[in-house]
Design a protein that fits this description.
10% strand; 7 strands; alpha+beta; elongated; 5-stranded mixed beta sheet; 11 helices; 435 residues
């Protein structure tokens, strides 16, 4: 009966430790809508799973747990741990806004943290046999807290980038194999053949090595992402140069036409012909209506440039913007945000008949927040992926950066990006706290 009670105790404490480790790595992640309901469902699923195993152990009785560990016991232990891994992953996936491979990656890292706490307790128990470090004791909880706190400060905070772990399916699968080898297979072998102390030292160092390696990998992926963004910005600057050259050519041509029209106006005596020339002059100087003044020089430049493009393509651009609200933003960030948003809106508008080409831009303040919105009409259907429309262009390596760049800028200022396509209109909303 004592062995049975010990096993039941392990059925409670081990999943609890692992669940706390999963929560530790999930804290910085983006949450799904209806988070509390999803959290309750995930916890309920895990509790039912643990309760089912506890009931099965009670039904099997003391005989099933008596004696030394054998191959069957090891097999059941491995099965239990693997199933618990799957349940934790499923609970994390339905709760947090992450793809499945990222949920697997997060649970694998959590297993490392839990096993580190286990190894620390094992080493303390062997080196200091009189310490009351059994499951449920104050020292037991203190050791978990210290290990998890250290893992969070040293590893978790450095691994998360923009509320996500950069983990591909291959990365997640490789880490999972390494973790299961160290945490489950070697632990079972150590229990079977009695070299628990040496295994604890080896496993602790292995877990530390794996977590340090993950931090390095996340930093490497972050640098690669930054390099990709720099390449995209270079492409944008090249396109910006071409657009600026076209706009200068338009202004030069208009000025050249104005010079000749003014000279011709002096020689015209026919009232009707004078009226036609004056109308042409008014149309020529309308280019200066494209110059927008918002109180922010960078924003004025971007809006004026895009307004000239809209004018050339017969797109109605309306703008109500208080640019002074954005004075704290970096010039590159400001250009990236509005340049990409308006480029996407212009591109979508060009697919419409001229009478339907409309873009609306607003920058205003509300309840301590800066609200930026760009609205345009579009045709067709959009499929969403990770909260953003999936690009309809063939070369996904060159396209699709626009909205991701906008999201990166928003998150850099603790803001949020939200897009809502529907009813023939595309709504882009960026919300940034006022510093």
């Amino acid at each position: 009966m004592e062995t049975l009670l010990e096993n039941l105790k392990n059925l409670v404490f081990f999943p609890t430790e692992l669940l706390l480790a999963v929560i530790l790595f999930a804290i910085p992640l983006e949450r799904r809508p209806h988070f509390l309901q999803r959290l309750a469902a995930g916890l309920g699923m895990i509790l039912l799973f643990i309760g089912g195993f506890a009931g099965l152990l009670l039904a099997m009785g003391p005989a099933s747990t008596a004696g030394e560990p054998d191959g069957s016991t090891v097999f059941h232990t491995l099965t239990w741990c693997l199933l618990l891994f799957l349940m934790m992953t499923a609970g994390l996936w339905i709760t947090m806004a992450v793809p499945l491979q990222e949920a697997v990656y997060c649970t694998s890292c959590a297993y490392l943290a839990e096993h580190m706490a286990y190894c620390v307790r094992t080493l303390l128990a062997v080196c200091f046999p009189h310490l009351p470090i059994a499951a449920g004791s104050p020292l037991y909880f203190l050791s978990i807290f210290l290990v998890y706190f250290s893992v969070f400060r040293l590893f978790v905070r450095q691994m998360v980038q923009n509320r996500h772990y950069a983990a591909s399916a291959v990365d997640s699968f490789g880490l999972t194999l390494a973790v299961l080898s160290v945490v489950l297979v070697l632990s079972a072998a150590a229990s079977q053949y009695g070299f628990t102390f040496l295994h604890s030292i080896y496993a602790l160092l292995s877990c530390l090595f794996l977590l340090v390696n993950q931090v390095r990998q996340q930093k490497r992926l972050s640098l690669q992402k930054e390099l990709d963004l720099q390449k995209q910005l270079w492409r944008q600057q090249k396109a910006q140069y071409e657009m600026s050259r076209e706009n200068i050519e338009i202004i030069n041509r208009k000025c050249h036409d104005l010079k000749h029209q003014v000279a011709a106006l002096k020689l015209i005596r026919d009232p009707e012909q004078q009226t036609r020339v004056i109308d042409d002059l008014q149309e020529s100087v309308m280019i200066y209506d494209a110059i927008l003044e918002t109180g922010n020089e960078i924003l004025d430049t971007v809006l004026t440039e895009k307004s000239l493009i809209c004018s050339r393509h017969h797109i109605v651009l309306t703008c109500i913007a208080d640019g002074t609200l954005l004075s704290f933003m970096d010039a590159v960030d400001l250009y990236t945000l509005f340049g990409n948003a308006l480029d996407n809106a212009i591109e979508a508008s060009l697919k419409l008949p001229e009478a339907e080409r409309m873009i609306d831009v607003q920058v205003r303040r509300k309840a301590g927040l800066i609200l930026i919105s760009v609205t345009n009409r579009f045709s067709g259907n959009l499929s969403m992926e990770d909260g953003l429309p999936r690009t309809g262009k063939g070369n996904t390596s060159d396209h699709g950066f626009g909205l991701r760049s906008i999201r990166a800028v928003a998150e850099a200022y603790d803001g949020l990006l939200k897009v809502e396509p529907g009813d023939g209109q595309f709504f882009l909303r960026v919300t940034i706290p006022i510093p």
